[in-house]
């Protein structure tokens, strides 16, 4: 099966949704977000899933969604920040997708996601800055290992990030 999808991975605030929407339009592909599909499937918010059932249950639901979207064709898939944490998710994505890691610095993430909110359950609690830095440090090698392409998104307009992704897709 040819890899007609583009799966965007990376930390929250890396630009996966914004880049994904624009990339889908520019490449005439459909667009889906795994987090939105999890919420539709569970009929509740991600924050509610975390608070009521825990992260493990959320990751199980996320894996179900990834296994389905990996079967789509001609789709840009904006993956939740933790999708790449499960090797099986990456394996499913790689069957149909070129995996693009949108890399970003902790400073940019903190600027983009703004002050505390309930829609980012992994960042609840005190010392948000160190939590972001710790999670990013933990996940960086996982994102890098999963990626076919890596594109930096710091201080770069969305349309330029999309152009860079398009340039790289031609080479894969």
Q: How is this structure best summarized?
A:
The chain is α/β, with parallel strands linked by helices and 172 residues long. It contains eight helices and five strands.
Describe this protein's structure.
- The protein is α/β, with parallel strands linked by helices and 172 residues long.
- The chain has one domain: P-loop containing nucleotide triphosphate hydrolases (Rossmann fold), CATH 3.40.50.
- The chain contains 8 helices and 5 strands, in the order βαβαααβαβααβα.
- The chain has a 5-stranded parallel β-sheet with strand order 2-3-1-4-5, sandwiched between helices.
- α1 (16-27) packs across α8 (158-171) and α2 (34-42) crosses α4 (55-69).
- It is globular, with a radius of gyration of 15 Å.
- The relative contact order is 0.21.
Net shape: globular
Helix and strand content put the structural class at alpha/beta
Low-pLDDT windows of residues: none
The topology string of helices and strands comes to: EHEHHHEHEHHEH
Q: What would CATH call the homologous superfamily?
A: P-loop containing nucleotide triphosphate hydrolases
User: What strand line-up does the widest sheet have?
Assistant: 2-3-1-4-5
CATH architecture: 3-Layer(aba) Sandwich
Domain unit count: 1
What is the CA-CA span between the terminal residues? 15 Å
Biggest beta-sheet profile? 5 strands, parallel
- Number of distinct beta strands: 5
| CATH level 1 name | Alpha Beta
Helix content: 55-70%
Helix tally equals 8
Strand content: 5-15%
Residue-averaged pLDDT: 91
Q: What is the fold-level CATH name, i.e. the topology?
A: Rossmann fold
Q: What is Rg?
A: 15 Å
């Amino acid at each position: 099966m040819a890899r007609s999808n583009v799966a965007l991975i990376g930390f929250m605030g890396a630009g996966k949704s914004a880049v994904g929407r624009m990339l889908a339009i520019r490449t005439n592909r459909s667009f889906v977000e795994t987090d939105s599909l999890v919420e539709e499937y569970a009929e509740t918010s991600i924050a509610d899933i975390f608070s009521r059932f825990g992260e493990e249950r959320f990751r199980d639901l996320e894996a179900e969604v990834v296994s389905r979207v990996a079967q789509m064709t001609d789709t840009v898939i904006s993956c939740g920040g933790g999708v790449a944490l499960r090797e099986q998710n990456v394996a499913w994505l790689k069957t149909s997708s070129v995996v693009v890691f949108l890399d970003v610095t902790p400073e940019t993430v903190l600027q983009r996601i703004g002050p505390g909110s309930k829609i980012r359950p992994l960042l609840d609690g005190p010392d948000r800055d160190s939590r972001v830095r710790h999670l990013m440090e933990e996940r960086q090698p996982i994102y890098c290992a999963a990626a076919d392409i890596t594109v930096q998104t710091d201080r770069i307009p969305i349309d330029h990030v999309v152009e860079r992704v398009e340039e790289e897709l031609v080479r894969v």
